[in-house]
Amino acid sequence: MTGRLDGKIALITGVGGGIGGTAAAMFAAEGARVVGCDLDEAAAGRTEAAVRAAGGEITVHGGVDLGDAGQAEAWVDRAVATYDGIDVLYNNASTQRFGSLDELSVADWDFTMRNELDLVYYTVRATWPHLKAHGGGSIVNVGSIAATRGVEFMPQNAHSAAKGGVIALTLQLVVEGGPLGIRANVISPGLVETPNTAPMLADPPDRMRRVVLDRIPLGRHGRPEDVVNAALYLASDESAWVSGAHLVVDGGGSVLG
């Protein structure tokens, strides 16, 4: 432990696995008291047990659907009450559906907006009065490189639009939150290995290899800790004068045209 988050209370969404599970572990290892949530109750329990076994302080609530405004507000109120405060909100949770523009259903579009954009808004909205009462804090949102460029290897129209909304919302949070001491920043990951992407990365389609993997200047796809290390910086006092940053974490791939 280096104690970069000693004394801080961090709310992290979507901690059941992948980047969120890594975030819960790394934030707790840096001294944060973590309150997490996940829609998957069993996964939430596994993360809580693992972090506690490693000596971290954490409470995780399972079965929380942040795409429902009422559930988001109830979780935030419960989470803030757990350790009597909040310093950091890390909006990691995200679920999407993919399909070409003429094949993606309206229901799939709505699902993606609900579970990538709406849930961020609902959670921030519920957290805002607590951050105001606390005298400020750090909001870390998660965008995507798909929000800033076209993606060639698979159709991502709904995902791109939703994450573009997250980036735009973050900029407005900077302006409205600044006088209140609230900082807001966004991280846009590239292709990261998670339980969802691992099968695809184990045997990548030729087109994905050519247009994505072979074009990453640093020569590899991402790992969860690559993203979480960026979030740790934005959550810590090291970034006390950083608000409105859009931190791309993609091995350099997005600089290539």
Automatic annotation (TrEMBL):
An MF annotation (GO) of this entry: oxidoreductase activity
Gene3D superfamilies: NAD(P)-binding Rossmann-like Domain (3.40.50.720)
Pfam families listed in its UniProt record: adh_short_C2
CDD domains from the UniProt entry: SDR_c
Keywords assigned: Oxidoreductase
UniProt xrefs under PANTHER family: DIHYDROANTICAPSIN 7-DEHYDROGENASE
Family affiliation: Belongs to the short-chain dehydrogenases/reductases (SDR) family.
The protein, known as: SDR family oxidoreductase
Record organism: Nocardioides guangzhouensis
